[in-house]
Specification:
The chain is mainly α and 294 residues long. The protein is built from 13 helices and no strands. Helix 5 crosses helix 7 and helix 8 runs antiparallel to helix 10.
Length: 294
């Protein structure tokens, strides 16, 4: 018996060493890059701006400005509203697609999943620019409406509006919402649906009492995956939005760019991270409640 244990000991040490070697690159990236970047942002947020890279002194003036200037409250609220609308639109359109993939796709499931992930093969900027072409004054949508006789001349009502930002972001992040919802739906035991049917539940009742509650963790995950990056997005508002669509990410980018005020840009970033942290904690609490109910 002792000889068997002694023979297995080198294999165990070798296996643990292999796991450690595989985890080491990811750990280094996490601690040396991500945590270093976050620490640098926090450090800069409490510095004064003197035109240098790392600022000067220690101060809370940046946070005082963010808290007292109505401009930043207005832009932050607008960013949350736009991100919320994008999240609602994306999840609402992604759920039927994920439902079909999980319960009705059959042999076509692999092909349809491939088509869902196909947008990942193209650049995010190209997809945003494509929507700019569609919504432009002489773009695809205006041309189609004129050709069909609905309108007699092009309109500027589509491009450079908050609605254009919402539509473009919803399309860009749709695959990120479809996949987690599909995974949640696909893990629901088919026996639950069969039991509901045997007990006389109609399809809508089975969906409301069985499918929807069990898929809520995937819905919440999809909502977070969409909401978190869209709050700080600045590329899409700059390309398809106008002044009324300015988001907090645009202001942060301008502080690190033209304004050359890195400490204030870092303070804005910290405030956005705190807001997102609150949203994540609320979503986590909701996920626990749904988990306890199911």
């Amino acid at each position: 018996m002792s000889a068997l244990v002694a023979a297995q000991a080198p294999k165990a040490r070798s296996s643990s060493g292999f796991r450690l070697a595989m985890l080491l690159p990811g750990a280094l990236v996490t601690f040396l890059l991500i945590l270093f970047a976050l620490g640098l942002v926090l450090f800069l947020a409490f510095r004064g701006n003197d035109g240098s890279l790392l600022g000067v002194g220690l101060t809370v003036d940046n946070f005082v400005t963010v808290a007292t200037d109505p401009l930043y409250w207005t832009v932050t609220l607008r960013s949350l509203v736009i991100a919320g609308l994008v999240t609602l639109a994306t999840v609402a359109t992604a759920y039927p697609v994920a439902y079909y993939l999980a319960f009705h796709a059959g042999r076509r499931r692999g092909l349809l999943l491939f088509l869902v992930t196909l947008p990942f093969w193209t650049s995010y900027l190209l997809r945003v620019f494509a929507w700019k072409i569609v919504l432009a004054y002489n773009g695809v949508l205006n041309s189609a409406l004129i050709e069909s006789g609905i309108w007699s001349e092009p309109t500027l009502a589509f491009l450079n509006t908050p609605a254009a930002v919402v539509v473009t972001l919803a399309h860009a992040y749709a695959p990120f919402a479809i996949l987690p919802i599909y995974v949640a739906l696909d893990t629901i035991p088919k026996s639950l649906l069969e039991a509901a049917s045997d007990l006389g539940a109609r399809p809508f009742t089975a969906f409301r009492r069985v499918v929807l509650p069990n898929s809520m963790p995937g819905v919440l995950a999809a909502a977070l995956v969409v909401f978190v990056p869209t709050v700080g997005d600045y590329v899409t508002p700059a390309m398809v939005g106008g002044p009324a669509s300015t988001m907090i990410g645009t202001l942060i980018q301008s502080q690190f760019g033209k304004a050359n005020d890195w400490p204030f840009g870092a303070a804005l970033s910290v405030c956005v991270m705190l807001v997102i942290l609150v949203v994540v904690l609320v979503a986590r609490n909701a996920d626990r409640r749904f988990g306890s109910r199911t």
